[in-house]
Structures are given as C-alpha cells and as structure tokens.
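chain below, 68 aa
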Amino acid sequence: MPQPGIVELLLVALGVIIPVVLIVAIGRLILAPFRREDPAMQVLKDRFASGEIDEAEYLRLRSVLQRG
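prediction:
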C-alpha cells in the first residue's frame, strides 16, 4: 500500500481542524450572552484606561471587587 502524500495529509488535517474551529466558534457565540462582566469592574477598567487611577490603585480595587 502506498504511503499518503502531502496533499492527502493536508486534506486530513483540514478535515479535523475545520470542524474543531467551527465547534469552538459556535460555542463562543452560544455562551457569549452568559458572560456578562460586572458593571463595577467595567467602570474600574475604564478609569484605569483613561488615566484617572494608577496601576497600584487599579490592582487594589480589582482585588476588592473580586473578593465580593
């Protein structure tokens, strides 16, 4: 029996990779509505991004918010 060539190996690889990518993409689309970020965390990120608070304050407040 002849060994498979590069074209056959690429086709098999694509036959495996494409379904996996599709499954991951569909899963992300389905789960996206359930991954809502805490509004307080978003405000904190916005304040850090705009320069209102420095990194040390951001990290301190983030740890407070994550503790609940």
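The chain has two domains: 1-36, 37-68. The two ends are 64 Å apart (CA to CA).
thats it, cya
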